[in-house]
Amino acid sequence: GNGHVDKRGALIVLEGLDRCGKTTQCSRLVSFLEGKGLPVEAWRFPDRSTNIGKIISSYLTDNSQLDDQTVHLLFSANRWEKRWLMENKLRNGTTLVVDRYSYSGVSFSAAKGLDIEWCKAPEQGLIAPDIVVYLDIFPEEAAKRGGYGIERYEQLEFQGKVAHCYKILCNSSWKVLF
Ligand code: 2DT
Q1: Which of 96, 129, 131, 139 has the fewest CB atoms within 10 Å distance of its CB?
Q2: Who contacts 137 (Cβ-Cβ below 8 Å, separation ≥6)?
Q3: Atom in ligand 1 nearest the alpha carbon of residue 56
Q4: Any idea of its EC number (predicted)?
């Protein structure tokens, strides 16, 4: 009673290239867990609803110029500003299914040529996921899926570089789905 729960929620992160099907799989997973009667919420990064998220969104959608390091830190700050809420939700037993997290942050920035260790640094201290699911898809395959939109990064050559960076980050604890 009194809102006390013994069981922490799980932090489940889905990662992958643009158009790999993350968003669809996230909502299917959320529905599945809801069906089991578990408290669960769908989250995504970037969270475009915050002030930082709005700067990120305009960077992604128009041609606002920001240097790569600054953008990297904004994406990271967008996770930091949600950290405390995330921690509270998990503590209170809510499972979070998150569409993109630090691995997107590191892979997309490293794909631009930033040093990968530098990219990882601001992610230190964020809540570590319990499960990382990587939806593996060839960039060529992803590009065929209805074509890319107009956002920055949605280009075949760049997505290939991102895929390469994900492979560097991937370890044996990840669940890789084809
Ligand atoms: P969506 O299309 O999923 O909204 O992502 N990105 C995302 C980064 O470069 N760094 C990050 O930390 C995150 C979370 C991936 C928008 C784009 O933003 C990229 C695609």
Answers
A1: 131
A2: 16, 17, 19, 20, 21, 178
A3: 18
A4: 2.7.4.9
The percent of residues above 70 in pLDDT, for the chain, comes to: 97
Tokens 């960039």 — which residue? 139
Domain ranges for the chain, please list them: 11-177
pTM of the model: 0.95
With bands split at pLDDT 50, 70 and 90, how would you rate the model's confidence at 3? low
Ligand 1 centroid from CA 38, angstroms: 28
Q: What is the pLDDT of residues 36-47, one digit of tens each?
A: 999 999 999 999
Predicted pLDDT at 1:
45
Determine the residue type at 13: V
pLDDT tens figures, 82-126: 999 999 999 999 999 999 999 999 999 999 999 999 999 999 999
The ligand 1 site (C-beta within 6 Å) comprises 18, 45-46, 60, 75, 100, 104-105, 108, 153
Give dist(CA 26, CA 43) in Å, integer: 9
Choose which CATH entry (3.30.390.80, 1.20.1730.10, 3.40.50.300, 3.40.50.720) describes domain 11-177.
Answer: 3.40.50.300
Please report the DSSP string for 75-108 in residue order: HHHHHHTTHHHHHHHHHTT-EEEEES-HHHHHHH
